[in-house]
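lol ok so funny story. i was supposed to be doing the assay writeup but got distracted and ended up predicting the structure for this chain instead. priorities right. anyway since i did it might as well share w the group, maybe its usefull for someone
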Amino acid sequence: METGKKYYLLNDVVPLYALHPGGTLREVLRERKIKHKDFAHSIGMQPSHLSALINGKRNITPAIADKLEKGLGISAKFWNNLQKLYELDLQRIKERDKLNYEGRGRR
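and the output, tada:
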């Protein structure tokens, strides 16, 4: 049996791109009509850090997830899971792209 190969179930779809959890945060704040700067101050975060998070340039850490839970009432577990799913999607996309690249060279 070959080792090192990754096998996925047929229904285990690799997305075209990964959705950063900051996009979800942006939508929650928009829906609740909360200004980014006001929210950042209310949870003890620098507005620039919140902006980086919302724009996908900063990840949600457990500490940030706790702040989001306190500020929005959405569990830290939810935010941490979004971050983990994002990272998993990035890894799967990377593996898929590597396989596609290697496959082209073998023809």
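The radius of gyration is 18 Å. Residues 76-105 form the longest helix (30 residues).
back to the writeup now i swear
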